[in-house]
Amino acid sequence: xxxxxxxxxxxxxxxxxxxxxxxxxxxxxxxxxxxxxxxxxxxxxxxxxxxxxxxxxxxxxxxxxxxxxxxxxxxxxxxxxxxxxxxxxxxxxxxxxxxxxxxxxxxxxxxxxxxxxxxxxxxxxxxxxxxxxxxxxxxxxxxxxxxxxxxxxxxxxxxxxxxxxxxxxxxxxxxxxxxxxxxxxxxxxxxxxxxxxxxxxxxxxxxxxxxxxxxxxxx
Length: 219
Prior knowledge:
- By secondary structure, the protein is an alpha/beta fold.
- It has 8 helices and 12 strands.
- The protein folds into 2 domains: 2-122, Rossmann fold; 125-217, Arc Repressor Mutant, subunit A (Orthogonal Bundle).
């Protein structure tokens, strides 16, 4: 995890940098915000720790500038701890606010909490050409969301979880909790899934029909 630290108090900068490094974070630190912004445009960072009282430009303007081109989490670290400053910080896109003085351990806790939340919300499982977000019950193909119904999503997930295994129509019906679902209904759902993932039943890339039995995922 790489942290971008923009802090013009060099003693504070060194303290935070050393503390973050002790917890396994890689840190790039800048006293001038324009240099920090340039680094953020060129390299990928997991999080930004940003002071408000800076040379060249105010920290609020830096926060707004960051939000104009990326969604990296931002923690404001500032001696300006009144409520109005906190409100403005959040309005400019900050994710959290720490009023100085504070224990560096508190910063670590906030960083860990934010990164855990961000990583969980963006975590997708890669299967073949698909990305699957099981928390949101969403499937993506080439970055685009596939508009599956709930039943189609469940069938698709069942197929990929049993990759290269032949699943009979009755097995699919039992998985759905509808053991009386007709073969025709299962075939209709498979047909809809194929259409949505641009799969040709005659020359399948993902879902192959097994005559007289059912289907298997081959992607």
